[in-house]
Design a protein that fits this description.
- The complex is a heterodimer.
- By secondary structure, chain A is mostly beta strands.
- Chain A has 2 domains: 5-75, Immunoglobulin-like, CATH 2.60.40; 86-398, TolB, C-terminal domain (Neuraminidase).
- Helix content of chain A is 1%, strand content 51%.
- In chain A, a hairpin with a 2-residue loop joins β8 (96-103) and β9 (106-111).
- The radius of gyration of chain A is 22 Å and the shape is globular.
- By secondary structure, chain B is mainly beta.
- In chain B, the strands form 3 sheets. A 14-stranded antiparallel barrel of chain B has the order 1-6-7-9-10-11-12-17-18-23-24-25-26-27. In chain B, strands 15-14-20-21 form a 4-stranded antiparallel sheet, with no helix packed on it. In chain B, strands 2-3 form a two-stranded antiparallel ribbon.
- Classes of the chains: A mainly beta, B mainly beta.
- Chains A and B meet through β5 of A and β2 and β3 of B.
Amino acid sequence: MATVVQVSWRTDEPSVGYVEYGQELGLDFSTPLETTPSRSHSQLLLGLTADTPYSFRVVSWDGREAGASEIQSVRTGALPAQLPAFEESGSGLEGFVLVPFQGKNAGVVILDADGRVVWYHLDTSGLEPFRARLSADMSSVLYNLANVEQASSEDSAIVRVALDGSAVSSIPVPFLAHDFLELPDGKLAALSVDWDENGVRGDSIVEVDVAGEVTQVWSAFDCFDPALDVGDDAANAWTYANALDYVDSDDAQESAYYVGLRNFGGIAKVLRETGECEWVLGTTAASLEFAEDAGPLVHPSGFDVYSNRLLVLDSGLPSEASRVVEYELDLDAGSVSERESYTEPNGAFIELGSVTRLVNGSWLVNWASAGRIELVKDGDPVWELSAQNATLGYHTLTETLYLGDSRKP
Amino acid sequence: MRKLAISLTLLACGTLSSEALASGYFNGAKGARAAGRAGAFTARADDLSAVSFNPAGLSHLESTLIQVGNRFSYNAHSYQRAPTLDWGDTDNGIPRYVEFAEVENGAPWQLLDPILGVASKLGLRDWTFALAAFSPAGVAREEYPIGGGQRYMMVEREAIILNYSATAAWQFRKTFGLGASLQWIAVPKLEYALVIDGSPYPKTGNPVASELDMLATTEGADYFTLNAVLGAWYRPAPFLELGISGQVVPTQMTTDSTLSVKAVNSGLVGDVELLREGKPADDVRITFPMPLTFRGGVRYRHLEADRELFDLELDATYETWSHVERFVVESDGLIANYQEQLIPIGRIEIEKQWRDTLTLAVGGDYAVIPDRLTVRGGAYYETAVAEDAYANVDFAGGPFLGFALGASLYFGSFEVAAAYEYRHQPALSVAEGDARVYQEVPGSPCVAPYTGPECHDAYQGLPAPAVNAGTYRARHHVASLDVLYRF
């Protein structure tokens, strides 16, 4: 991995330490402070850009005294030519964007706020990555490999790549759809295509434990009836689930999945414990009604659930411009009102995309099919990233690449 | 009488404190003749330095002696604090690794360190009496930058100590002698300043700097402390002389002082008001224990025709510095009021945990041209007064090596004695984990055993960050010049 440096050192006494690093002699960044004293230490320097000289030094603390190594230098390597080029403009984004890419080549990259690749992985499986996430322990990148077209692939998998690039492992999960996530209990949850006895293509949520055992925990057929809830493209794919979110709760009964059902023009809240569909927002089998002045969902793609709000990228119809819309849910009244929206600035239809709400209220809008990500603040784009000759998958925004406190990255 | 009055005025204006070749508060030997032989003077003790070295030695005098002298010194002390992690100023949870620049004593020159006195037999055959005033040999003033790495130990101190001695000595047929000095020790000025962290918050841990850093300065005086030195000598054979003496009165100096506290950070507005029981007050008491001192010397006298051609003396000095466990600033309930934030000053204790010291000195005189020129020299070794863990910039506490050279020229009744002395403390390093001088954080809610949730995670079990880790260096160049008039 040309943009990751592993620093190892030994100390005479058990100690904790961290590595300071930066360009020139700045040493502006650091790895986290180790939590367990030991004599043998190793840390990764992350967030580095390619072909760049860096300085670093080790700082250690044995609970009695501090020590530091001499300042050392290292130069990162060059990026593989197979990676797409990225262009960035504007400002205002902080952190890193983790995103799969597709096109002539496929893989996953982590980009810094300046649009520079700080981590990458090329995938030659022939399947397409649609979602990439940092593992909960921040030691690896997870991404799915799937074929989301009609001929869903039995060879699909969730791939784990160590951040230092040293290990790649694959967890087979047949018939994966677009999205997956890591649950607080360490399991993975993924969308998977599911067929009924009549050959109707629905969707399911499967959970994958640490041993790789796959268990279906929910099926669209549990909540919906293909005969009654037809959707708008049952001939190709009945529900066509394409996005998954999860909100954990101290009360296990409240923990829930949120499943984007493209061909229902909706999103369903599915209780993890029971598989019950608590509510459905959309145009098919809906339990919530859109307010009169709210534009209903047409073909939702990636979304973000927070509080009583739902931020969703609605691809819409091919003849119309896609948009991002924020809905406010009034579950007591069973209604949904539209709060804000942002239309694709070029008036383009975007088949696949995702959106994240930042803590400052800005939206990170990923027009994935167009290979473009925007930071939208108060309705205006302030930062933009474009991939050349590549489309993107669902992104993940992360403030830092480290588990635990560090001087960013 | 007029000369004496002028000299005493000079003393009062000058600086210093002193003892005869000692560690702790003092260093080196007082008097050019004693200093020139590296303080190996307990058995010889034949000038006014004897009031401290061995009062009995004054009985050697054959005539009246007036002695005036001064000691000039260059006291090069430096300290470089050991790097530390600044847990008080973390950047996104990561404490910065902080290195400190070396700081040096900003007041290395000490130009006034006098001794004067008169001794006379007053017409008696076996008795000698002396009056002497001197400042004990030592480093009177040290000054370091307020932003330096030492600031939580000390920023500045000045100690002016004057010793007024009245001595009586008696001898028996040049075989043995006894003597006693009654000493009145006056401390007209004692100033000590250090930075304290005024943070009143739980989990306070600011080893490098605090927003609420305060410069705490005490200044005061103690005009009356009595002490006594007893001594004896014995000459079992003409060529051999033994001497012993001791400063044997347990005592301590307690100054009535004032305390001032002011914010270090220029961004802080307003003054710190000191209160006691709701009323303005600033009086504190500072206690400095004094050691007992025991000296012993054996001197070989090489005689030619009853004249002493040269001598060689070996001395051992034992001082009970272990009495000094800590410097205590007792505020008797003073409370600092800053912006309505009330911080109890309490009892500030600067840990010392000193230990007894042993000094071995060897030195002698050689009459190159009898009655015209005498040269002398010597060397000594002092054990450390402070354990490394308690090293502090206020007093150099490590072991010292020293050597001295000197000479006397005689002009009739006058003797001009000069000496050069070099004292060297090998570099002394203290690791933070071993350091035991802690930052003063009077407002901290973290109390013994310092393991509660109100104590900073990085300093569990400690009252505050240790602030004396680092490397200490000390060397002294000392020149002494005395004029002795015998009649």
